[in-house]
Amino acid sequence: MENKVLTKNFGLKDSHLLSVYESTGGYQNLKKIFAMQPVDVIEEVKNSGLRGRGGAGFPTGLKWSFVPKDSPKPKYLCVNADESEPGTFKDRYLLELDPHRLVEGMIICSYAISCHNAYVYIRGEFVYPKVQLEKAIEEAYQKGYLGKNILGSGYDLEITVHRGAGAYICGEETALLNSLEGKRGMPRLKPPFPAVVGLFSCPTVVNNVETISALPYILDQGAEAYRQFGTEKSPGTKLFSVSGHVNRPGVFEVPLAYSLKKLIMEDAGGIKDGKALKAVIPGGSSVPVLTAEEALEVNLDYESLQEKGTMLGSGGVIVMDETVCMVKALTNLAHFYSHESCGQCSPCREGTGWAHKLLQRISGGEGRAGDIEELQKIADNMAGKTICVLADALAMPIWSYLKKFRNEFESLIKD
Amino acid sequence: MRSAEESTLLFEVMPKLTIDGKEITVDEGTTVFEAARQVETTIPHFCYHPKLSIAGNCRMCLVEIEKMPKPQISCNTVVQEGMVVHTQTENVKALQKNVLEFILINHPIDCPVCDQAGECKLQGYYMDHSASGSEFNEAKVKKPKRVDLGPNVMLDDERCILCTRCVRFCDEISQTGELCVTNRGDRSTLRTFPGKKLENKYSLNTVDICPVGALTSKPFRFQQRVWFLKSVPSICTGCATGCNIYVDHNDGKVFRYKTRENEEVNQCWTCDEGRLSYTFINEARLIRPLLKTENGIEEINKKQAVLTIVEKLKSEAADNMVFIGSAYESNENNAALKKLADALGVKRLEYAYHEVENPSSDDFLIKADKNPNRAGVKKLSYAEFSGELSGKTVIAMEKIGTSQLEKIRLKKPQYLILLSSQRSPACELADVILPVSTFAEQKGSFINFQNRIQKFESALEVKGEMQSAWQYLQEIAEGLGHAWNIVSSDKLLQEFFNLNYEAIGEQGKVIEN
Ligand SMILES: Cc1cc2nc3c(=O)[nH]c(=O)nc-3n(C[C@H](O)[C@H](O)[C@H](O)COP(=O)(O)O)c2cc1C
Ligand code: SF4
Ligand code: SF4
Ligand code: SF4
Ligand code: FES
């Protein structure tokens, strides 16, 4: 069984070229798709059970169906290529090695939601991926897959690539929209949701690069074929970015519900230097950490990870061996989130900074009695009380580190 | 009878909800915050402002709503049918306390030297919530304490809680967009855009709406502890709009005007020019009558002054007299002058007015007519100033604009009696000057450009022999054998406008032409 959906061309020479993509069947399906009703495209995606790969795992077809069909306003697709969550680097591979898959996916999604102007919001530091993507878009225009009257279908689509300027928060979909509009990259209040009031106040779908890149397969092979991977509730394949103390870090495509142990120990070549595994962050830096025992028994799907009190997130697997000081690791995360907080909500603006300073003090050996409780309180008081979930993205690590590795914190507290 | 369909429609348009056990029906689209106000509950808040877009950033207005998994900000939550909202539970109190703690950790808490102390939301809520000590053991973020934002406004960056009310004011109300927040996280900082200054015509409103002491008015900075100020409802005399204000004063001195809400006139804003026009009340005031003699100008007492005027008028033929009211003076004072004219048979009633070169104006509040009562003086059938005064005996009230003074200089009256509150260029032309109170020292009314009559209260005590123009005019009338028996300005308002102050109310009243 061919078990790759997203990375099947990664091994081919010049996989980023149009000719190579076409030779593997790329774009060959567009005519058939344009013959379908947009609602049927949405239906197919719904049936596939595809869930957003940007972190929240929201059902993709359902999201598209929220776009009001009778709205006279233009509709937009914004592809989220801001990929900035520490430990996550899968979209980058898709952009560099198979950009045409993304372009075709964007055509499919745009057609389904009647969008004629699609955007890719790409992380500013992704210079090379951006060059690759722009080359691919250029090729697609020349071949008539983009532009006016695509393949004689009467359907028009323009794609614009926009570079971010180095803010993690611009990966949050409404901050992304603000940034794209030329405003300060700050999350918007919800409701309204982007599907109704999005880019330039028009209905907008925001989807992750990986989500969109799965579409050509789903429309070509059908929802059922996609569902042969994974489980009923977590169908399909997923890219995992494995980093940290492993012998072979990298991006791996596996069917959902794959064993995390297998991913680390086999695909990623096991723990470096024969050290013992200590902890694993399974879904990008913001999700609760797993102890070695938990990590070695969990499967990588939305439900299994949830049962273990953590999340699949963006699939950024960060592996930590026995040498890692968990206090320092958390301090590092607190630094990141306090640096990246957009600063508009009082609890996040102040709480992330407070947590960082407090953790710095503990890791510097200046911990005092009461600090752990204080840290716990900061996390409790900011989580779930802000405009976006960045505050939760630091609270979740704090809770889990304090719960699972409390002794390491306690040992640094002087009484 | 309504059809079932109509009833459901009505039902949908007017959702019903319960707030702290009180049931209430509200208009569709009402937020929980606004609905709470309708049952007299003001949910603690910083960033919400009724005239500005919703920012939802302070998170102070969190409430519990049954069946919702997380606390919700009331300012951005639209009421849904059947919502059950709790704003007073222990849990909600804890939410507010926790938000306050976050806001306070990097706050300088320099209330002893902060102009806002005493009217600060942050201070107020802190007192409401336990007033407990700090548990913050880290170094505070340092920010600059004196950032010059523009001609009238100074920022103390450490006190700023980043509610963005001021930013939204400049974007949405003045529409000048000078302000922004730069940087991120706890380094976030309020600034003007590069190369810009906060210098719109309404910039001091940002100081009014700043919930803390971050934005301060340069003229008011460090002038007065606010709890010493007495606040009196009044009307700005800066232009024909007549913005509703409070005159804040202490020790016989006006320290500032603050906006008073009037949806029909100025909403809750005032322009900087008008707001800072109070200085005339404090400066160059006349407190004794003055008489021009061969030896120059001499101070005389009230009795002598009135007597001098009475003597002069007694011998004057009615058609040789011109009485000049003022578009800057109250209805009551203009009415008294008219009453005197009627008593003496004087037919020529004209009005003077305040003039400025290149008067500011816009399509929001500011009117080019810099007089608060042109409509009032016209209603009393005064004609506009003609300048034909040669050889006449004239009684005039300030303010008299420069071009009018020019005409008076050219066609000199034979005798000029001036009622003025301060030393002014007109004084040089007068033969006798009566020191009158400004609007801040008396009760009275103006009629603004909308034909809305609005009242003002007396704020300051009069000094020396200063009194209202109508009081002087009554004394003159009496000297001439006309007993008026007026003890307060109400009577003039009643007689000439058929109104009383109560009927005018706090928000004024539009009157017929
Ligand atoms: C702080 C923050 C950062 C985020 N960064 C990214 C990102 O870099 N890439 C991404 O695809 N989604 C990111 N997201 C999630 C997006 O808001 C959004 O859910 C996602 O792009 C939707 O696409 P999907 O449904 O295809 O997953 C972020 C969310 C938050 C709160
Ligand atoms: S939670 Fe943090 S990052 Fe998100 S909007 Fe609020 S301040 Fe900005
Ligand atoms: S200066 Fe005042 S009004 Fe402006 S953001 Fe800061 S606290 Fe809010
Ligand atoms: S608009 Fe006119 S009335 Fe209002 S504050 Fe300014 S000067 Fe005063
Ligand atoms: S008042 Fe609602 S969040 Fe500030």
Structure description:
The complex is a heterodimer of chains A (415) and B (513). Chain A is of the alpha/beta class and 415 residues long. In chain A, 44% of the residues lie in helices and 15% in strands. Chain A has 3 domains: 18-227, Rossmann fold, CATH 3.40.50.11540; 237-321, Ubiquitin-like (UB roll) (Roll); 326-414, de novo design (two linked rop proteins), CATH 1.20.1440. Chain A contains 19 helices and 13 strands. In chain A, the strands form 4 sheets. Chain A has a 5-stranded mixed β-sheet. Chain A has a 4-stranded parallel β-sheet with strand order 3-2-1-4, with helices on both faces. Chain A has a two-stranded antiparallel sheet with strand order 7-10. In chain A, a hairpin with a 5-residue loop joins β5 (237-244) and β6. In chain A, α15 packs antiparallel against α18 (390-404). The longest helix of chain A has 21 residues, at 346-366. The radius of gyration of chain A is 22 Å and the shape is globular. Chain B has 513 residues and is α/β, with parallel strands linked by helices. Chain B has 15 helices and 24 strands. Chain B has helices at residues 4-13, 32-38, 90-105, 121-128, 165-173, 205-209, 272-275, 279-282, 302-314, 331-344, 374-379, 402-410, 469-479, 490-497, 501-504, and strands at residues 16-19, 22-25, 62-65, 72-73, 84-86, 147-148, 153-155, 179-182, 189-192, 215-217, 230-235, 244-250, 253-259, 290-293, 296-299, 321-326, 348-352, 383-384, 393-397, 415-420, 432-435, 444-447, 452-456, 509-510. Chain B has an 8-stranded mixed β-sheet with strand order 15-14-21-20-19-16-17-18. The longest helix of chain B has 16 residues, at 90-105. The relative contact order of chain B is 0.09. The A-B interface holds A 167, 169, 184, 189, 191, 338-347, 349-354, 357-358, 361, 368, 370-371, 374, 381-382, 384-387 and B 54-60, 62, 70-71, 76, 78, 95, 98-99, 101-103, 105-106, 135-139, 141, 161-162, 164, 180-181, 183-188. Bound molecules: flavin mononucleotide (FMN), iron/sulfur cluster (SF4) (3 copies) and FE2/S2 (inorganic) cluster. Flavin mononucleotide binds next to β4 and α18 of chain A.
